[in-house]
Predict the 3D structure of the following.
Amino acid sequence: MSLTIGDTAPDFEADTTEGRISFHDWIGDSWAVLFSHPRDFTPVCTTELGYMARIKSDFDDRNTKIIAISTDPGENHEKWVQDIEETQGARVNYPIIADTDFNVAKTYGMLPNDVSGDPTARTPAQNQTLRNVFVIGPDKKIKLVLIYPMSTGRNFDEVLRVLDSLQLTAEYQLSTPAQWQPGENVIISGTVSNEQARERYPDGWEAPRPYIRIVPAPTK
């Protein structure tokens, strides 16, 4: 069954390039981004893992851990990491899961339950559904699911933007409008009554329509 926003992210144990982990324990009190790859040594994913290594500090600043997954074994991951560093100019500085038994891919609905056998005998095309991004909150709930085709590199700057929105709206009863960027105006959520809003925003709000209540973004 496919996972969606609001579902609990399934827990699992797996071997990674940084040792064996229990996923929920590894997340701890942080946010997390789990992003999947159809096979090691694939060109688009090579650029993606390199880019994520370069911007890892941006995720660190948002109390967010990042972790990649491929069905290849750990020894392939280690060789791939070398290729990524040499071609992308950045060394992978986060764990890569070796999902050789397809357990995580199946649990997260990315591969059918009947997949089995040698993971290295499968082609990237057979694993093309392994092009997902899951953003998971400290409560272990899924906050975002993105699925990309094999031909299109993922926009991880957008993932950072969504993280900023998620973290803001998790703390305040707010929503962010189309094309929102951090620091720009936000919208009072519909769950907040006008009476509650007046308590929180005594200076009022801009309302082009009664259901659109615009206020400046909170500053910490």
In short: The first helix runs from residue 23 to 27.
